[in-house]
Design a protein that fits this description.
Layout: H1 2-15, H2 22-29, H3 33-45, E1 49-51, E2 57-59, H4 61-68, H5 72-89, E3 92-99, E4 102-110, E5 125-127, H6 132-137, H7 143-149, H8 167-177, E6 183-186, E7 193-201, E8 207-216, H9 217-220, H10 224-242
Antiparallel strand pairs: 1-2, 3-4, 3-8, 4-5, 6-7, 7-8
Length: about 260
């Protein structure tokens, strides 16, 4: 039941709608409000949930720390790579994974002076259809698979001005970016913000994570070619970490040495 409650809070957060309070959460999962109150208090004490000032709930740090522990090699290897990408482009760099329609930020690094509000906490949850990382995580999905995934989800009203508003628009955007292997999301999550993202694959070629650089569109566009090159190289280094190999150190821009 506690896991159902946490998942319900996650789904609500990812939808972009106002979060559940305890009473509404109880109704959502179908339990008595007194029981929901006790369980919520226990989850908050253990930091699996957090209570905002307006009494609504969001997922807490302990949940994401537990999730992150499932990717130890990937997380360990990602920190210097993310830091180098962030410094090289004066931006933010992110490592994300997908859980259903949700994209969960596992680790983020930022350059000095980069707007902190664009970074997001390490537990940030966003929808998969309106972020660069989300689209990168769906890059291998067919029209039928995406249609099934987003069944009953309303895409209108979530994301930035250039976000996909239908499954067809999402598929078209990925069809456009797939040949290059890099997703270019301009204004899809927030006006004026660009996110370049690449999938991180395991040894069998399955997408397991997404690596991205995010910043002001006007700051990143002049460097688009080198960002693409560095993201591909960094994703290759992280792919080795998924399979448990010790990869050689990346250079100052996240690319592997020759």
């Amino acid at each position: 039941m506690a896991l159902r409650m946490v998942n319900a809070v996650l789904d609500r957060e990812a939808s972009g709608r106002t979060g559940f309070n305890v009473s509404r959460l109880a109704d959502e999962v179908g339990i008595e409000r007194s029981k929901a109150s006790r369980t919520t208090q226990d989850l908050c004490e253990k930091e699996f949930l957090e209570r905002r000032e307006d009494a609504t709930l969001r997922v807490g740090s302990a949940f994401f720390a537990t999730a992150a522990s499932l990717h130890p090699g990937l997380l360990r290897r990602s920190r210097p790579i993310l830091r180098r990408l962030a410094v090289a482009y004066g931006a933010g760099a992110r490592l994300s994974v997908r859980d259903g329609v949700q994209v969960r930020l596992l680790r983020a690094e930022s350059a000095a002076g980069f707007a902190q509000e664009w970074m997001g906490r390490a537990s940030l949850v966003t929808p998969c259809w309106c972020t660069g990382a989300g689209r990168a995580l769906l890059l291998d999905h067919t029209l039928e698979e995406i249609t099934t995934l987003l069944d009953d989800y309303e895409l209108i009203g979530v994301g930035g001005p250039d976000a996909a508003r239908s499954v067809g628009e999402l598929v078209s955007a990925n069809d456009r970016d797939r040949p290059n292997g890099v997703v270019a999301a301009h204004g899809e999550f927030e006006h004026g913000v660009t996110e370049y993202a690449v999938p991180v694959r395991d040894a069998d070629g399955h997408i397991r994570a997404a690596l991205s650089v995010v910043g002001r569109q006007q700051d990143l566009l002049p460097h688009v070619r080198t960002i693409h090159t560095d993201l591909r190289s960094a994703a290759g280094a992280l792919s080795e970490s998924i399979d448990g190999h010790d990869a050689p150190e990346a250079d100052a821009r996240g690319a592997m040495p020759s």
